[in-house]
Amino acid sequence: MSVNRPPTATATLGQSLFDVDGALSETAGRLPTRGQFIRRGGRRLAAGAVGGAGLALGIGFVPGSAHARSEREDLAILNFALALEYLQASFYTEAERVGALHGPLAQQARVVGSHERAHVAALRAVLGRQAIARPRFDFRGTTDDPKSFRATAVALEDLSVGAYKEQLPRINSDHYLAAAVAIQSVEGRHAAWIRRLAGIVPAVNAFDEPVSDRRTVQLVNATRFVTLKVPHTSSKRSPSFTG
Amino acid sequence: MNRGGWIVLAASLIVIACAVTLWPGGHRAPGGSARSPAPGAQASLAALPQPSKGFAIPRPRLLRDRAGVTRWAPVLEAAEARERPTRSSPGVVRVGTQTPEGTTNLVVVIGEAVRHGVTWVHARLAVLPDARTGWLPRSVLGGWQFVMTHLVINRARETLTLLRAGRVVFRTRVGVGKPSTPTPAGQFYIRDRLTRYASPEYGPLAFGTSARSPYETDWPAGGFIGIHGTDQPGLIPGQVSHGCIRLRNPAIRALGRLLPIGTPVTIT
Amino acid sequence: MDGVQGTATQSGVDLAGAQPTRRDALTRWLRPVGATGVVFGAGAAGATVAFARGASGLTHRDREVLEFLAGLEQLESSFYAAALSAGKLTGEPLQFAQTVGREERAHLSDLVHLLGGHGPSAGHHRFDRMVKSNASFVAAATTLEDTVVAAYNGQAENVTRRTLARIARIMSVESRHAAWARGLAGKLPAPVAVDAAIDADAAMKALHPLLGGAS
Fold it and tell me: Which of A153-167, C46-60, C67-81, C199-213 has the lowest average pLDDT?
């Protein structure tokens, strides 16, 4: 693992979504420098106090109160949600900027993109220093033509619905739950919207089933949209220009 | 590799995943004593608490500035750039994955075309004659990156101006090419950024561009035009260089904080 | 924090036979953290939890909410049944009524099953005006589905997490229905970044036009 600092419990679940090779990505190791603290009913929990216990361990080495542990779990879940929102927001933003879409599909990308960006902003604000950093994406041509865009959007929205369903009942705090419920409700609308544009039945089943963390990570990895190879655009070589 | 195939795979996996039921059925109490109010049973419903607000979610954010956005992508696979978006078209130049500075090669893309199901991109190329463009298969490039900035260099006025979303954010005087080795005119882009090298004549920081000069004989394919600092600030502004754009060192440092890779460069 | 639950008990409302809702909040804090992050209440905190739930695994509050939601599903099922038997729908609105009606019936069935077999009585509704054309049907469906979405959202915190897991499977499908109906009505399927959450009272008020004549 090539990170400078140990993963915090809250970051781990979100990072695992982008943990493509089993090594944490370069971007995941850099947390934002905003010094935000997470407020809970007037009390301040120092966001950095979490320490190195990963959610996967189940119990932290940091002896915290049950409340602190509960908070850590919730923040880990919010980070997982943030990871998926980054994916969607970046996808729609790129699609809009590439400009290959027209008419109702372009409208969907514009409006849904605006929602996903708002979701990203909200989750980053709540998570503060604990928020995972935005990863780099390579959407591999899926934003370059309407057909690929549509197919990808259907997959991403349905995945988002399933993933939120898995996370919702795990959220300890009603405060966070309320927001997560409101967000996932919109994701259901997004899914129906793009499916209808793709000519597929917007609600194909009476029940949307949860998609496990492992499956979600697998599916995201299968897209290979998360890129660990960032362009290397700096160098210490002496310039050999004309001068 | 068929990228579309990955999406189909992911989508089908999702469909399968959605079919998996994770929760067991609820317990059944024999002869369950459920009360069955119609929705009009107001009394007990009033007892159900108000939902809490949760954390704040801001208003939807539409993208600003659709115009003035430039996109670039790294070159992941060496390929022949062609005159037209078809494999049978004559090649313009081979586009490699690395720049001479050892950085990832990248191209600014100004258009796209789909031919027989294959997406081609119209790319600016770092080859003479200057401001040459050519067509590359989309599949050899990596993920899109976007910049809102634009660098404008006016040779006659010896000025450099950086705009972001159409607004001026930086301006300075520069040294440009001597009459015998002029700075080329045209549309180019910033390719890479060099720092901490030991060549004081380039100052503390240099940017590589896609612009090339036919006037230097050291490079058979043409020399590379850079934007960099100097150890002779007294010469700036002026027609002093072999084609490069020279800034005084405080100015290049300031520019270094503002100029992203991939920024389009217009030299007039 | 636990503000919502706390408020409920402070409001003085006493649900007959209900355990204090504060207990639900306590059991959540005491729940051991497993790899999956969720452990059902039973057994985790021992006796405290056993008292909070009936043999069905539902708290009294759960039942209240599920009965309310079942009532909504009943309303939806009746509406779509009426629309289909009126026979005035064509094209995609017809397909919508068929598909969504089937799904609402499945939701109702699921909730009734969860409640132990006794569902809400079918109210008497007069949907005639609303099902006489594609346009009026779609307009009514939009109001109905949007309200049901917000009503479900408003109840999420009122049930135990276990029950939430059950009804969450329905909630996003209601969102899909709402988006579909809005699309049919020429409206933005998702007009805002966050969906509303309304309490039961507000839901009933919003549905009043559709209920007119309900028992």
Answer: C46-60
Question: Nearest to residue A119, comparing CAs of A140, A90, A142?
Answer: A90
- Annotated active-site residue B242? The verdict is no
Q: Please check whether residue C175 touches A, CB under 8 A.
A: yes
CATH number of A12-223: 1.20.1260.10
pLDDT at B216: 67
- Residue B215 sits in a domain whose CATH number is 2.40.440.10
Measured CA to CA, the distance from residue B210 to residue B109 in angstroms comes to: 13
The three-state secondary structure class of B55 is coil
- The C-alpha atoms of residue A39 and residue A46 are separated, in whole angstroms, by 9
Alpha helical stretches, state H, C33-59: 47-52
Asked whether C95 and C142 are in contact (CB, 8 A), the reply is: no
Residue B149, strand partner residues: B164
- Per-residue H/E/C for C164-210: HHHHHHHHHHHHHHHHHHHHHCCCCCCCCCCCCCCCHHHHHHHHHHH
Pair A27, A234: CB distance under 8 Å: no
pLDDT at A45: 30
- Is the Cβ pair A227, B143 closer than 8 Å? yes
The C residues from 39 to 98 touching A (CB cutoff 8 Å) are none
Within 13 Å of residue B76, how many CA atoms lie on the same side as its CB? 15
Establish whether the linkage from the previous residue to B200 is cis, with ω within 30° of 0.
Answer: no
pLDDT digits (tens, 9 = 90+) for B192-239: 999 988 899 999 999 999 999 988 667 777 789 999 999 999 999 999
**Shortest Cα distance from A195 to chain C (angstroms)?**
9
- Establish if B14 belongs to a structural domain: no
User: Would you call B228 a catalytic residue per the annotation?
Assistant: yes
| pLDDT band (50, 70, 90) for residue B115 | very high
> Per DSSP, which regions of chain B are E strands?
70-74, 79-82, 91-95, 106-115, 118-124, 133-137, 145-147, 149-154, 159-164, 167-173, 175-177, 186-195, 205-213, 223-228, 238-241, 245-246, 264-267
| A103 Cβ neighbours under 8 A, 6+ residues apart | none
Classify B102 as helix, strand or coil.
coil
In a domain, B33, yes or no: no
Whether B164 and B225 map to the same domain: the answer is yes
Of B18, B192, B261, the CB nearest to A211: B18
> What span, in angstroms and rounded, lies between the C-alpha atoms of C139 and B21?
34
Q: Measured between beta carbons, which residues in chain C are less than 8 angstroms from residue A189?
A: 175-176, 178-179, 182, 189-190, 195
> What is the structure's pLDDT at C115?
93
- The chains in contact with chain A, meaning 3 or more Cβ pairs closer than 8 Å, are B, C
Domain of residue B134, residue span: 70-146
Contacts of C5 in chain A (CB under 8 A): 174
Determine the residue of chain C that is closest to B37 in CA distance: C120
Nearest CA to CA, how far is B18 from chain C (Å)? 10
